[in-house]
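Hi support team,

I submitted a single chain yesterday and got back a structure, but I'm not sure I'm reading the token output correctly. Could someone confirm the output below corresponds to the sequence I sent? I've pasted both exactly as they appear in my results page.

Thanks,
R.
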Amino acid sequence: MKDIFEQFNFDTSIYQKYKVGKQKLTNIFDMEVSNFYDKIDQWEKRKEEKQKSLDNIEGWLNFILVVSFFIAWLWLGGWIAKFFELEVVIAVIIAYFLWWFFLIVAHNYIEIVINNVIILFGNIITFGKYKKLEQSISRINGIILKAENGVEKSKREKGEYLEKIKNNVKTEVAPFEKEFCDYYERELEDFYNIKLFRKRSDSDDFIDDLFAFKILVEDLQKVNGIFLTQKIELRDYKIHIDKRESELESEVREIIDNAGIDSLAQDKADNKKVKKLHKFVETIERDIKKEKHEDEPVEQKYKLPQKVDWQKVNIKNQKTGLKGEEIVMGLEKEFLQSIGRDDLAQSVRHVSVVDGDGAGYDIKSFFENGAEKYIEVKSTVNSIGAQYFISSNELAFLRENKENYFIYRVSLKDNEEVTLQVISGEDFLAEYTLNPVQYSVKSKA
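Hi R., thanks for writing in. Yes, this is the structure output for that exact sequence:
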């Protein structure tokens, strides 16, 4: 996507600096919030312990009060029976209803009295421990409330600081973003109107134009995710691309259903529609082969909007590669030592240096249980998301040992911390696309 900015006289590294600064600031505030939450968790546990002790005391006191009320009820029943000369059972029933009527009418006052009685007798019975527990809980609630206020304050300040640095960057990038968006909005409109709008799928170069347009739209969508003041409207273009691709796929699948892939591949393109759609056939042929469990990748032969110098991209920076491998060696040894497996740490082997590059991986390490772990290190001085290359030997070994194979992606960008991404062999095969960029050529003779 770097090529898309080259025609503009603007230092786009400002976006990377903003991203790094934003991430550092976010990390600082997130760490602060995390510390507040840890503090809250610790005090919540202490509060829970003290509340449990307080509840136990109150449970016994409530039991005593219930027994006291029961005795008072029986006493009232006995007094009614004696004073009104009634049967004891009838007097007790009358006392029961009188008692509950009294509780309903004066429940607010009774609740206050009961609470005061609990506090009074709780302190007497526990020699003041009840009061200390209450004070401790009240003090803990104050600490928790202060920490919660700290969380809210930190989040608020984080938003304010992020908005401030964003506004500072907006001032610098606004003219460039306007120029860029104006330019590409015109380019998109011209491209669409001249090469795609109402063009038939069998017209000259339609397939090339559609895919070039699609890749341009995808690149601009990434740009939209970076820009701070302007966005390019791409929704209608994406809908049109999806619609035309769906139409092409329907046409191609109809031809495949009628003629078959093998027959279509051997067709010398006497059929005009087959000739014009042949490139698109190859883009969906891979999906059809997946349905038949055929894993051999098929090269996509549509034209890209920018020139890719594969030879230049494929040059290895041995110094960078070795540095990345040494970093991973150190990390693996430190991890094994941290879990008490010094024996395994001493056995970690720098295979690419000691034995050479033919093993299909760079480092042999170990899991905690002693099982071998095969690590291929892919180092770069660019961002960790940049493309990289894997040899056929490495890919073959990965497929045979996918459960024990890992790719360590190491970014060694200048003036920045080392960034590491770990990809398991299973995730690599499931989530990453392999595009063949080179073939071995041998005479048939």
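A quick pointer for reading it: Residues 133 and 189 are 74 Å apart (CA to CA). Let us know if anything else looks off.

Best,
Support desk
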